[in-house]
Amino acid sequence: MDLLETALKRAFINKLVPSDTLNPKFIINNPKKKDFLLTTVQSDLDKCQSFVISVAFITQSGLNAIKVQLADLEQRGIKGRILTSTYLGFNQPEVFESLMRIPNVDIRISEKEGFHAKGYLFDMGDYQSFIIGSSNLTMAALKQNYEWNVKLTSYDNGEMITTIQEHLENEWRTAVPLTDDWLTKFKKSYRPIINSQIIRQEKTILAEEDSVYITPNKMQKAALSSLKDLRETGASKGLVISATGTGKTYLAALDVASYEPKRMLFIVHREQILKKAMASFKKVIGGKDSDYGILSGNSKETEAKYLFATIQTISKDNYQELLGKSAFDYILIDEVHKAGAETYQKVIEYFTPDFLLGMTATPERTDGFNVFELFDYNVAYEIRLQEALEEDILCPFHYFGVTDYEKNGLLINETSELKYLVNQERIDFLINKIDYYGCSGNQAKGLVFCSRKEEAKELSLLFNQRGIPSAYLSGDDKLDVRESEIEKLEQGQIHYIFTVDIFNEGIDIPKVNQVIMLRNTESSIIFIQQLGRGLRKDESKDFVTVIDFIGNYRNNYMIPMALSGDHSRNKNNLRRDTIDASYISGLSAINFEKIAKERIFSSIDQAKLDSMVELKRNFYLLKNRLNRVPYLLDFEEAGSVDPLLIAGKTKTFYQFLEKLGETEGNISDEESQALRFVSSELLSGIRPHELLILANFLKTKKEELTIKQIEALFVEQSIFYTQDILESSLKVLDLSFYESGLRKRYLPSQMFTFESEKLVITNNLKTYLENPYFEKLLGDSVLTGLKKAENYEITQPLNLYKKYRRKDALRQLNMIFNQNEQGIGGYTSSNNHFTIFVTLDKGKDFKASLMAYEDEFLDERTFRWFTKAPRTLNSKEVKDIRDLDDLHIHLFIKRKYTNKDNETDFYYMGEMKPIKESITQKQKATSDGKMKNVVEIDFKLGTAVESNMYEFLTKVVEEKRS
Hints:
This protein has 962 residues and is an alpha/beta fold. The protein folds into five domains: 3-201, Endonuclease, Chain A, CATH 3.30.870.10; 210-389, Rossmann fold (3-Layer(aba) Sandwich), CATH 3.40.50; 395-606, Rossmann fold (3-Layer(aba) Sandwich); 653-789, no CATH class; 803-954, PUA domain-like (Roll). The protein contains 40 helices and 36 strands. The radius of gyration is 31 Å and the shape is globular.
């Protein structure tokens, strides 16, 4: 049956009819599942040969969400059309300005009264795809609002698509082209008559500055409660880690209001911040103006109840003696990561407050100073970027990863000569890109971070020569010079400040609406610091544009790491985070141009993310925070390096600690082997049942558990289980699940046997548990595995798109594991399950197979697979697939980008059914030139592969491996 005919039959006649990706689709934004209309629109734009978008309302943020896709289409010579309106005065002049900057899109404005259409049409070549519903081209409609949209497909001669296209053509002919003259006239006559409340729904403005009363937001409430609880324990110090722009000054003021100190001291490193901080405190605490005072180079109001001081002044002996050691019962230090400096140390050692509060966005330091130690390791509260975006505390941002200037095959890198960075062609390139991606309101107030001073200074001069007023600042400039240029930027007298590093932190410029990165990403911390310069909400902007010019840099892999907050150091995770950025919360968006993606992939390929040097660095960062040796559970809870990677690097965590000289006891080789079993087989947490049994033995000190007791344990813990799961768990713990080679490895340190309907601990384990250090390491592994298990839905044996090793998949399906994992190869079957493991894109030099298999996705729901050779239509597995209707066939996919990849995990793609008429016997050549029989089978997946996952698995990486 024809594909479209099948899709329509499934949609409108019988939902049980198996069909492919031409299925009609009902689309609702679902932030919890990270499922958005935006993803569908972006995906269809990526694949189309032309498009038409007809929407009444457009915002700059909505247009930004598809600009990368439009830029990639231009590279392919593909054009489109957008039909919009002036209905209700919603579309602002700035939107039409932004539309005019897109070279491959024709724009027309409908003059039809009450124009309120919302449709997206894509010509896919073989068919037409169209989305019609309630969503305009606004970020809220594409990603957040409760909208109804239906996606349909049609062949060219279908009546519905023909009717839509004819109607659109009529509308297009009668619509007015968007021109400079039209825009000039529109600006003069523009009067927004739409209800202002509706417009505000498309914006995310924080009215805090204009409010009479300051009330804490959700995160500030939690932080205030945590600070109160901390003090009730007797703590005299506390640290608040708060992302830039999340309102830590108001948080501090609210806490001071709650504490009611006799006198308070607020310490900062810049006088400009003092004035703003004092104004915020006044708004929260109230009282007489005389209660507030400033101590700085220009002001000496030392008698104030609430004193705001610069560190340069308060650290001087004469002022300390004037005030006295016990002058303040509450002291706050802003940007406290600077507290390693001598001036800060002098102040902290002199004064004796009842409570000392430190605030910073970046406690992790590279200079060796331990901020956590200074505050007795009391982290009262932590607000990181992702959480702040979820709570709508920060201004939404649109991140664009774009490729940097390239000439004659040479791309900007760390060692590029200055003349290459500042030549006229690169300036043209930069200005064109910056103009294309734009900013909120189209009047740029931007910070440009450069790689070196000479580059920043020269670029500033060249931008000025092009009529773009700009300034250059470096660490050599005095404070008054910096503040003067910042004021010019905020007033619109200049559009850009070019700088190197000095604005990474400690600067508050709320009106910044554009951040431009022209440098290598040195660390994820610095990346987030620079991104954060624009994230403070302000009524002058609806969003921040971040344009990251990505050259041929070694550290490009840090970009997805920083944006996603995924520090697991798993290469495939970073690749997926580059392609699928649905993890970003709220009305923010992340997009990479095609070539920029390839540059990041190249960096990921070459990076040694699991090197001992990197693991050691992360170990000591966490140790500094905890003031003790961190264990696997600490890494998992901190969102640091994946414990699986740490334990896997040296077989066990104990051996890892040995390498670092950080062990806190000794264990025997036999005990180490027992730990290796838990690390290798259970730590991933794909199933909690074995771990719960182990945890119960450790907690109760029992020597045996009956079947009924184990079942009662699962019920008590509210853990779903079946008899198959119970039996499988017991087989894993007594090692009978494992194939002979693996069982032989683990038997000398076997911890359990199953006998007489009881799980019994062995004499081995009895002896091992006499060693408290072994028990601690074992308990740590168990708790870490249980923490990881929270990421799985255990009512299903396998979760879509989760990763499993071959033996994990067999264990979850209660299959027989009677050969080593490499022996399983591409597929195996038992207990009515048939598992297929496929490695896509094995690399040009793949030598592991005698025959080149061409397993591939034909589309999001159809997978083509080849049996091993030699096989015929009469081979057992082929007959089973063809004839056993109740056979459960599972597909697992691993993506191998380079031969250096040592990924052992496969993504689970779900169950699938064979298309029986596709089963064909063929001959394929082996590497020695012989022909062998194989069988080709096409399968239909029960669930179509999500678009971003599909792109990740099927993307062809075309960049040069340089």
